[in-house]
Amino acid sequence: MIEVRGLTKSFGGKRVLDGVDLDLTEGESLVVIGGSGTGKSVLLRCILGLETPDAGRILWRGKPLSSQRAEFLDGFGMLFQNAALFDSLPIWRNVAFRLLPRLGRKRARALAIEKLARVGLAAEVADLFPAELSGGMRKRAGLARAIAADPKVIFFDEPTTGLDPIRAAAINALIRDIVDETGASAITITHDMTSVRSIGDRVALLDRGQVRWQGDVSQMEHAQDDYLQDFISGRARPMGSQPQG
Ligand SMILES: Nc1ncnc2c1ncn2[C@@H]1O[C@H](COP(=O)(O)OP(=O)(O)OP(=O)(O)O)[C@@H](O)[C@H]1O
């Protein structure tokens, strides 16, 4: 569905992506992990067209994504880190933001309430403002917005950041259910290994601008890669021996 080949991107002489090859197949949930500053967000921004790569290709359904950007974005949903809700809009308008012009107020509001129910939020939440919600509720509202237009592709950017372990586990489980239920393809970027195990079918480890290891989540624990094993177990290495980030 999405093929990334030889993706390269530098900022001011610093090469952040250095030939990234990655595939996302139809209906698959791919999780991208990697140390801080390894280019996970830059990779997502390149796919979204918010950054222009220096070299490489991004294909969607076999053709350059750049030539079908509008169609791609139409069938795309995203859960932003910290949910990124508009503070001045009630929750239902946040959820139905993209659909309001097309559906009109009444249908858009009804759809928002339906999506809020799907993520475990009561109808009364629809008329609250983001500041009135807890972090976990905001994350759920962001998730409702991500799925409002029944996307074919969903990106989850650090979905559990800022949540306690119990709320994080609930969000992970909800994301997995939604991905299974909708059949959408998903890319998640995270540092949270619990998210990897809960959400992912496949995992790709970015290191020094390249995909250092990729495979099924079930193979990850037994993979012969020291850095991956350090990453999984949260083990620190002696100074000078860790990969650059
Ligand atoms: N617009 C930009 N201009 C200059 N440098 C940038 C820009 N965007 C990203 N970078 C640099 O690219 C590197 C990778 O950043 P990126 O945000 O993709 O990392 P990340 O893997 O998502 O990190 P984290 O896990 O900490 O969020 C960083 O060194 C960052 O400073």
TrEMBL record:
It comes from the Bacteria. The keyword DNA damage does not apply. Residues 2-233 form the ABC transporter domain. Keywords: ATP-binding, Nucleotide-binding, Transport. The keyword 4Fe-4S does not apply. InterPro entries: AAA+_ATPase (IPR003593), ABC_transporter-like_ATP-bd (IPR003439), ABC_transporter-like_CS (IPR017871), P-loop_NTPase (IPR027417). This is ATP-binding cassette domain-containing protein. It comes from Paracoccus aurantius. The lineage of its organism: Bacteria, Pseudomonadati, Pseudomonadota, Alphaproteobacteria, Rhodobacterales.
